Amino acid sequence: MVAELETKRCQLLSDLETSNSEVASLRESHTSQLAGLERENDLLREQLKKYVGMVRNSSQSNESLVPSLSGENEGLEQKLAEVST
To answer: What are the residue ranges of helices labelled H in 1-85?
Structure first.
């Protein structure tokens, strides 16, 4: 009976060690993914800021090339500005 319990204990410890290493591996993988997504998010945010700035400059400097931002377009410009900040 003691030998059976010892065998079961060893098996449980082995399973626990395996589970811990899997968790550590998953944590490392998720941390890496998160860092990549944060970099991508920062890049997209910067691109959006540049785009909004270009749209604003274009609409201010040359009204004939860019349609006036009224109605629906005004809301879109405001949303883009909010997201970029």
So the answer is: 2-61, 72-84
Please, which residues have CB within 8 angstroms of residue 18's CB and are 6 or more apart in sequence? none
pLDDT (tens digit per residue) in 39-55:
999 999 999 999 998 88
- pLDDT reported for residue 72: 59
Determine the pLDDT at residue 79. 75
CB 51 within 8 A of CB 80: yes
- Rg for the chain (alpha carbons), in Å? 28
| CB 85 within 8 Å of CB 77 | no
Assess contact for 71 and 63: CB atoms under 8 A.
Answer: no
Is residue 84 within 8 Å of residue 49, measured between CB atoms? yes
Query: Domain coordinates of the chain in residue numbers?
Result: 2-84
